């Protein structure tokens, strides 16, 4: 549909997870109409979904406040409504008689998929032309993964969308104040969140590409160094205050202009992870059911029937008796962010040591992650739980991770203060202290800090026996071939600008991994 051929029509720009002005195709398309307005709908379906948290909503509201101001400077009002989308659209249509609905495509959880089907049906009934624009490398109705990487590259290299002046004939409407958490029926949260909005996103990108990115490759793994050494762009990409194309092109320019090889090499590693962002989202686009069921259906029944509520509660609250697991969980609950390796360790521990199903643990983590992105999240939950059928099983030792990633115990002491006086040689395994050391440390194991919830070696061996035994079956091998054909990456199609050095990891982290980073 060429909006330029119908200049007398009225357009409604529907914002979703694209809360920005720059590189926004629907905004640019709306300028071809005689007049326009913009809309964001705070949906009860989202607020009531099991993956939504008050911290997500607070971040969103801060983004909307800045977006409304930026659009107003360009003469475009942003209406914010609370309600289901179809009734909101119907009411606005009765008042404003808009003829075009413009939005970005969305690859989200199941409720967004159902909502979009309802919007499409309403648009057809109301004779509204709904045009959806791409904003990531995810391809709708993809027939095959072959050639997908080249499509991603072409989209990311395409010119960004730029607004040409103001919306001089935008519809004038009174705008209500933005709601707050209380008016939306949400209790306050206790997280300390990073700054929201497009301005904060651009500052974060600039500081990473110019300064913080030097230590990127070295900083990825430790929760101490990752806090500053990683990009910290993941919430901004999840809420769309930056487009992936903007990040990609800015990164490539920074690499080309880097003052030394050290920065260029570090940023090349980050550029590679950008490519994996959409690779994982494509899985949910191609098979929406993976939010609810195993990639490999041979895994059905593996963990569903023996879910341990006590183990789950201990894991959620950071009371497992394994200091690195508990420190990471407490840090995540307090800040809404954790680096990829530690996220993977949390899921590994829950899935293998505690034998918990990824759906329940995944919903809890979704509420904690400020950068929750459904396509990445559920793909990663299954990958780290061993239910994709095609990825290497990665069972993390919480003790080894503590020794490797927090050798001085700074992270553990910060987030597990009851271990604050425990001597460093015992900090990763405090249960090995004898009673005299416990008394001197002021930390009784089983009293001030819990005993290990499970035995590390025994739980690991039991998990390996079950998982590898299952994978040896003919049904598992046949299904793995099917999953690989549908969802696996294609090495022959990777862009030439991908990182040249091979990662030691069996599976590259997604960008919720650096988007988990």
Kindly describe this structure.
- It is built from 23 helices and 5 strands.
- The protein is mainly alpha-helical.
- It has 3 domains: about 5-135, 3-Layer(aba) Sandwich (Rossmann fold); about 200-285, Alpha Horseshoe (Serine Threonine Protein Phosphatase 5, Tetratricopeptide repeat); about 290-495, DNA Cyclobutane Dipyrimidine Photolyase, subunit A, domain 3.
- Strands 3-2-1-4-5 form a 5-stranded parallel sheet.
- Helix 15 (about 340-355) crosses helix 17.
- The radius of gyration is 24 Å and the shape is globular.
- The model is unreliable at about 1-10, about 490-510 and about 510-515 (pLDDT under 50).
CATH fold node name of the largest domain: DNA Cyclobutane Dipyrimidine Photolyase, subunit A, domain 3
Helix/strand/pairing class, anyone? Answer: mainly alpha
Strand order of the largest sheet: 3-2-1-4-5
CATH superfamily of the largest domain: DNA Cyclobutane Dipyrimidine Photolyase, subunit A, domain 3
User: Taking all residues together, what is the mean pLDDT?
Assistant: 92
